[in-house]
């Protein structure tokens, strides 16, 4: 014979407790009626009055518990009844949207800005202790500020313990590898992955190769993402060699190759400005 098992559901527990409390409420009410039935209220003993009041209070409290439990079962039931769900949906769908223009929203307004406050805000910007960098390049601040900003990514995962992948659809990409691939042309922590070895020759760098080998085409708009990566690489290399004039090995590529890339990049992109077609604009 197979032994049947019973697994109570949340709905069973809620209904069981509700039924039990209803019975308790009826029992309290019956006791209350029994205590006062057949007796003369004018001559009743004070103790019986106290007992009856206690019984009535118990019945009322039990009834309140039943109502509270009933409301809780509606609010927190994991599977609300279809009738209740349908009626709620119909009420929501038929409800008119609120008339925002008719609402009193003055409590959300901070009031008009006085001229004194406006001058104070302007002065805080104009005479701020932190002023924008005035040199060039200055995107994200000076070169030293940019280097400081990027240090967190450069030093990410020093022991190559993250694992994961830098490509794929519907996946969380490995941040350290993605950063290296975009800024160095290779991945420090995944040297066995095809095309992941960080290059030491600009002629093998995926973004710089067309410029270094003279195969870049200048009659189209080109790859803006690749161009942006190259501009970042050039800026980083120039600053690196500026900081290490006697130690070119501290930088990813040599000073000679860096200068060669700068020259070829400027030449190609100026040519592109003249030759690449533009919508509604004739080439120069």
List key phrases describing it.
53% helix; 0% strand; mainly alpha
Topology at a glance:
Blueprint: H1 10-36, H2 46-76, H3 82-94, H4 115-126, H5 143-154, H6 175-184, H7 209-212, H8 224-243, H9 255-275
Helix pairs in contact: 1-2, 8-9
How would you explain this protein's 3D organization?
- By secondary structure, the chain is mainly alpha-helical.
- Among the domains are: 135-198, no CATH class; 199-279.
- Helix content is 53%, strand content 0%.
- It has nine helices and no strands.
- Helix 8 (224-243) runs antiparallel to helix 9 (255-275).
- The protein is extended.
- The N and C termini lie far apart (94 Å).
- The relative contact order is 0.05.
Silhouette: extended
Uncertain segments are 37-44, 46-50, 68-80
On the 0 to 100 scale, the average pLDDT is 75
Distance between the termini: 94 Å
Task: Output the radius of gyration.
Answer: 39 Å
* Quaternary organisation of the protein chains: single chain
Q: What is the count of DSSP helices, taking H or I runs of 4+ residues?
A: 9
Would you report the number of β strands? 0
Portion in strands:
under 5%
